[in-house]
């Protein structure tokens, strides 16, 4: 469960509503039927932003800072009857990404499979056979037991030994039926989630589903196998599964897992206000995908914290970055560029057809496109911008750019598989503006522009973002898959063997769950999803933030030309975040505040706001 608390520092909040898609027919969805999605929500949160370690540089033309964003559950605004510990069924990320997970382990899959079989099956059968042999010898050597009694007892022991042989043969047949990877996946699923059956879906809570979880059952079984092979030191491993967004629980946590941002203040050129110089100390977009390649073990506690790569260094080349666990997000330098603002402020006047933004949560520089003027914000005219549709077109509809972002799937989505290490995509909620086949492949979606689109409303004279509505959906790609199964005879033999051990008072009378494991391995796992490939949303979020009527009044009365509202200038320090990035404090406004504070300390007259722009 993710942590939520309010720390110190300068913070502003954003409404952050989470919706979860509960899969109502997981069994039928693996037998060719369309997944039935039941939307649960909103699970309401407040999103907070804490800027710290702020440094002004280049004679005030740039500012460097660190950013901690975190979330607090808002029970009052959560939907009736909903709790953050609700039980929901969603696709199981670890199972969907198992082939990618195996690539992280410098061990042959066959060796892992052998270790899994030895640990979960062979060692148990060997122990049973050893006790059978000891008992057989004891019966034969017992001078006080009648021949009739001896024969009966030896016959019972022989029947138990025969059952062991049947189970051993059944396991051999199981291993020969399919690839090592699929055999290993089913064996691990049966070991990790006993009693829950084998499925592409699993049950969890909304917080874990969206924000990620520690101590993943499947990855913990892999950790046990690594330990079993005495490779713990050689193969650093973690058992966490990152979420769709990151909750930084403290400044220390944020410092460990993200780096500095540097942005222009607009002092020398107002058109550059808010533009990124570096984001997470990068000018080209890398993401930490394999954190255990460089995570300092002294700065991280396995099972209690999410790991992260060594802090990124600007002088690294691609080879060095990859050796530290970082991966380029997209295919070209253009696609991986970091440019534009964080969408808090744009260069004034903001009256162009397009505005460039760097979208931290989806690792992408993009453009928002002017749609229309809106006059419903406290009597102030704003320009409404929306994400341009072509950014989510696939390589067929957008051959110039689509391939650079690995967009080969149906249009309307962005492919994040390269950095998620599983088939993960994002889109507008309910597949708004996406290929119609995506909505048609599931049940329960009703796309609506009013309910599911994203927009920014910008005051053109100042370039300030006055209102934002951000909505983003996260989804998995599910493919048909066939996992092997042990035959019914093997499962029945294991059940009879374990029952016989109990009846005959064997030392290992519990059978170490062998019968349960065999029953699980016998479950048919020829998964056939709708059309052999289906894209299943599991969550979407709605972030909203709006400046107040006092802010609108300040604009109308010319706040930017007078200094009598100096005490109210912090009204502009509201924040939005997410798909359109985390809005930071307006840089040139912040500089004005600093000059006011300096003047007050020295007993000097307060400067006019124009001084902040010098």
In words, what does this structure look like?
This protein is 30% helix and 24% strand. The chain has helices spanning 26-29, 93-96, 98-103, 109-141, 147-177, 180-192, 206-211, 217-228, 251-257, 318-323, 417-420, 436-440, 449-452, 488-503, 514-521, 549-556, 587-602, and strands at residues 13-23, 37-57, 62-73, 88-91, 201-204, 212-213, 241-242, 261-264, 276-278, 286-288, 326-328, 354-359, 364-377, 380-387, 413-415, 424-427, 455-459, 464-479, 481-483, 525-527, 533-546. Strands 1, 2, 3, 8, 9, 12, 13, 14, 15, 16, 17, 18 and 21 form a 13-stranded antiparallel β-sheet that branches. α4 runs antiparallel to α5 (147-177) and α14 packs antiparallel against α15 (514-521). The protein is elongated and about 110 Å long.
β-strand amount? 15-25%
From the N-terminal CA to the C-terminal CA, the straight-line distance is 48 Å
Find the count of extended strands (DSSP E, 2+ residues). Answer: 21
Largest sheet: 13 strands, antiparallel
The number of helices is: 17
Shape: elongated
Mean pLDDT: 87
Helix content: 25-40%
pLDDT < 50 stretches: 1-12, 559-594, 606-614
Secondary-structure-derived class: alpha+beta
* Rg estimate, integer Å: 30 Å
SSE blueprint and pairings:
Layout: E1 13-23, H1 26-29, E2 37-57, E3 62-73, E4 88-91, H2 93-96, H3 98-103, H4 109-141, H5 147-177, H6 180-192, E5 201-204, H7 206-211, E6 212-213, H8 217-228, E7 241-242, H9 251-257, E8 261-264, E9 276-278, E10 286-288, H10 318-323, E11 326-328, E12 354-359, E13 364-377, E14 380-387, E15 413-415, H11 417-420, E16 424-427, H12 436-440, H13 449-452, E17 455-459, E18 464-479, E19 481-483, H14 488-503, H15 514-521, E20 525-527, E21 533-546, H16 549-556, H17 587-602
Antiparallel strand pairs: 1-2, 1-21, 2-3, 3-8, 4-5, 6-7, 8-9, 10-11, 12-13, 13-14, 14-17, 15-16, 16-18, 17-18, 18-21, 19-20
